[in-house]
Design a protein that fits this description.
- By secondary structure, this protein is mostly helical.
- The protein folds into 2 domains: about 100 residues, Cytochrome c-like domain (Cytochrome Bc1 Complex, Chain D, domain 2, Orthogonal Bundle), CATH 1.10.760.10; about 45 residues, no CATH class.
- Helix content is about 45%, strand content about 0%.
- The radius of gyration is 18 Å and the shape is globular.
Length: about 170
Amino acid sequence: MKQLVFISLLASGAAQAAETHFADADNTALVDQGASIYSMNCAGCHGRRLQGQALWQLRDQYLGRRAPPHDSTGHTWQHSDEELFTVVKMGKFSTTPKDIVSYMPAYDGRISDGDILAVLAFIKSSWPVGIRASQAMLNPGFEGMPKDADKVDWTLPPNCTASFQRWGETSK
């Protein structure tokens, strides 16, 4: 009996470790909820229209202090939902070295996991189909792939042709 309980505990721990976070940009209620939360918590730095701060990509004495845009002109779409969730919750990527200072506040304990996903859904809902499709390819099982991605022309940044080629090969 003890072995059965132990195996059950191991299985539940493995299931929790394997949990991934997904922000559904096609869920209108979630997107609306995220818009409100974004306005109250994120717009002060990342802009009311997701435009980020001026000169965000510049490398100077303010490196890392300017908030990047979350619209299609930034790099947010180049990260999976899980990575984006971690940045919002913890204030930095899980792969960021411990000694690196991040000016992104950690929202763990300030807003719920569900609210973080709502904000991410709001952000993703603003992207054109090509950007959403490219970002969805970073999620397990291409979760979040726009329904009509194979029926419309994609608008992609110049550095994103590999994503289009990958989608063409995997969607056959």
